Amino acid sequence: MRSLFARWMAAAAAVALLTCGAAGAQESRSPRTPNGRADLSGIWRSASNRFLNDLAAGASEVALTPWAAALYKERLASNGKGRPSERCLPRGVPGVMLAREQPWKIVQTPGAVIILFHESLHFRQIFTDGRAFPADSAPSWFGYSVGRWDGETLVAETVGLNEETWLDERGHPHSDALRVTERFRRPTPGAMDVDITIDDPKAYAKPWTVTVRFERVAGDALGEEVCAIRPAA
Amino acid sequence: MTQNQSMSVTRRAASALAISVLVACALASSAAAQWLTVPQASTPRTPDGRPDLAAPTPRTPDGKPDLSGIWQRPRGLPVSSVGPDGIAAGVEVLFQPWAEALYKARGASGSKGTPSERCLPHGITKAVSVPEPFKIVQTPGLVLILLEEFNHHRQIFTDARPVPASLAPTWFGFSRGTWDGDTFVVETRGFVNDTWLDFRGHPATDALRLVERYRRRDFGHLEIQFTIDDPKAYLKPWGVTLAFDLLPDTELIEHICENERDSTLNLIVGK
Question: ipTM score of the complex?
Answer without folding.
Answer: 0.86
